[in-house]
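Long-time lurker, first post. I've been practising inverse folding by hand and with some scripts of my own, and I keep getting stuck on stretches where the structure tokens seem ambiguous. Below is the full token string for one chain I'm working on. Before anyone asks, I'm not after the true native sequence, just a reasonable design that respects the backbone. If someone could post their per-position residues I'd love to compare against what I wrote down in my notebook.
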């Protein structure tokens, strides 16, 4: 019951802050009031404010700068889009991945830096270490690898879109991998994609990415 009450308070605080953002109480780039100021203004505890701001940061509305405060990142609330993504069908998710992820990986093959490659190899090693272990841990590592692939395209818009879409990818992965035995050949496709990106072969990278997306 205590957890339910706490959750309800956080949700109410998030809703009030969302309303203030959409009404233009703060401009994009402006520093939000401090936790004590927001707590006094909303009549809630600082802990509740902190949790509410974390929710807004996760949704992309607010940027939390350690030791500096929270800043309004955008006044366009992405929540409706995220909700729509979460309810899309498996086939719609697959189509979206073909359009967004595969094309981004093709760009990554052209634009990747040595620093990108280091991060990708590190992320793939972490993913491989969890492939036969806990499903939640593996999905988390797998998403980190795919996000790094998209980030290597060096297109902030694509990176941000995929960051929102990754929650859908996670749900679909959990749906399929919890029902089917893990296939090493599917994981090997990740290594082949990274090899294509490393060799700066965009067409092969896109083709392999599409093959991976089409896997059940």
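-- Answer (accepted) --
I ran through it position by position. Result:
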């Amino acid at each position: 019951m205590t957890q339910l009450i706490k959750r309800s308070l956080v949700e109410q605080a998030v809703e009030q802050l969302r309303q203030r953002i959409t009404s233009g109480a703060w401009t994009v780039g402006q520093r939000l009031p401090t936790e004590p100021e927001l707590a006094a203004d909303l009549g809630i505890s600082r802990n509740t404010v902190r949790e509410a701001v974390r929710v807004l940061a996760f949704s992309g509305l607010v940027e939390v700068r350690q030791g500096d405060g929270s800043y309004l990142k955008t006044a366009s609330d992405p929540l409706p889009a995220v909700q729509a993504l979460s309810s899309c069908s498996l086939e719609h998710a697959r189509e979206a991945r073909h359009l967004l992820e595969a094309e981004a990986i093709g760009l990554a093959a052209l634009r990747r830096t040595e620093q990108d490659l280091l991060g990708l190899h590190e992320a793939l090693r972490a993913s491989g270490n969890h492939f036969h272990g806990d499903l939640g841990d593996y999905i988390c590592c797998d998403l980190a690898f795919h996000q790094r692939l998209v980030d290597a395209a060096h297109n902030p818009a694509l990176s941000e879109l995929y960051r929102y879409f990754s929650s859908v990818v996670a749900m679909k992965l959990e749906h399929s991998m919890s029902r089917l035995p893990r296939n090493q050949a599917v994981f090997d496709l990740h290594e082949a994609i990274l090899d294509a990106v490393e060799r700066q072969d965009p067409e092969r990278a896109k083709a392999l990415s599409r093959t991976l997306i089409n896997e059940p």
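A couple of notes from the structure itself: DSSP finds ten helices and two strands in the chain. The CA atoms of residues 54 and 64 lie 8 Å apart. Happy to go over any region you disagree with.
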